[in-house]
Amino acid sequence: MDNYDWKIAEILESEGRISFAALAETVGLSKSPCWTRVRELERSSVLTGYRAQFDPGKLGVGVQCQISVTIGFDAHAAFEEAVLEHPAINECHTTAGDSDYLLRVFARSVEHLDELLRHQISKLPGVQSISTTICLKTIKTQSSITSWAAQNLGSTPGN
């Protein structure tokens, strides 16, 4: 990635609905080369998608939590397949340390979370133990990966 690509990525990360004309003008390219660069970022899977962001509380989802999960040694594939199908599990990451996975889960209420934990998540394939941390207040939900990557990988957007 060159400096134009970094700048394009940084702008798209914060303004995913920007027009190609406005994006091209902001980065200092004409529309066609800018469009070509965006398509190449998509083709190479550097840019993996565009999405809208929503306020969970305003959607009626009042409880957010992180769940550390330890599973049996031979259950990883079955567990991961079940996680992919479970609608309440928003994110799933493999981890190194005391647990095998870290899940991000949303629930309507504490009662709903209790139902999810006791009757669904604890019964996913191979689950041996779970530890739940409930989020009380969200301070930050997103940071710019492109700014961080550019700074830490030796390239600076806009140079």
Give the secondary structure arrangement, pairings included.
Elements: H1 3-14, H2 20-27, H3 31-43, E1 63-71, H4 76-85, E2 89-94, E3 101-107, H5 110-119, E4 127-135, H6 145-152
Antiparallel strand pairs: 1-3, 1-4, 2-3
Structural category is: alpha+beta
Helix content: 25-40%
Low-pLDDT residue intervals, each spanning 5 or more residues: none
Provide the residue-averaged pLDDT: 90
Topology, number of strands:
4
Rg (C-alpha, Å): 20 Å
How many helical stretches? 6
Distance between the termini: 13 Å
SSE string, helix = H, strand = E?
HHHEHEEHEH
Question: What coarse outline follows from CA principal-axis ratios?
Answer: elongated
Question: Notable features of this structure?
Answer:
single chain, about 160 residues, 6 helices, 4 strands, elongated
Explain the overall architecture:
- The protein has six helices and four strands, in the order αααβαββαβα.
- The protein has helices spanning 3-14, 20-27, 31-43, 76-85, 110-119, 145-152; strands at 63-71, 89-94, 101-107, 127-135.
- It has a four-stranded antiparallel β-sheet with strand order 2-3-1-4.
- Helix 1 (3-14) crosses helix 3, helix 1 runs antiparallel to helix 6 (145-152) and helix 2 packs across helix 3 (31-43).
- The two termini are 13 Å apart.
- The mean pLDDT is 90.
Summarize the model shown.
The chain is an alpha+beta fold.
